[in-house]
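Prompt: Have a read of the protein record below and flag anything odd:
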Amino acid sequence: MKPIDLSDEQLVEIIRENDQELYSEIIKRYNQKLSHYLRKFIYDQDELEDVLQVVFIKVYKNLYGFNINKKFSSWIYKIAHNEAINHLKKHSKERISLDEIEYKIIDEKIDISGQVDKKLLKENVEKLLKNIKTKYREPLILFYFEQKSYEEISDILRIPTSTVGTLISRGKKMIKQQIKEE
């Protein structure tokens, strides 16, 4: 069976059985996804790549601690999330960077296009997200931009699933309120 045909969890089992060369498949699968996610927290590309490298090193070192009965993607995103937060604490910078497609996603999902001019929206979405507390911003980013389910977000942020929905709802309300105030 080719590595590409294996689930993440099956791949981890094979890597654990002393085929560490297959770890490159994990990197291939998650490099772009995690880079995309970390970009919401870390603006500088060099810093982002450093944090991403630390994430993959930690994942490799802790692979034997991963519970095969859980979802690997939630586990690796949790490690990436923790490293992003650690980086922000050390460097006390918070900046969110959204690409063109993500502006469209937030416009559609949060339903704010009718309230503001689209050009203004594009210029202000980063500021809007930055102005809400991290506890609301994180689930919004995971849900809307990373397309994670409530259960996955719950695993990544280590909060109850019901709390995920509440935080997303409140985060959306905060963004809408900021728009009204502007």
User: Anything to note?
Assistant: The chain has two domains: 3-91, 100-181. The radius of gyration is 18 Å.
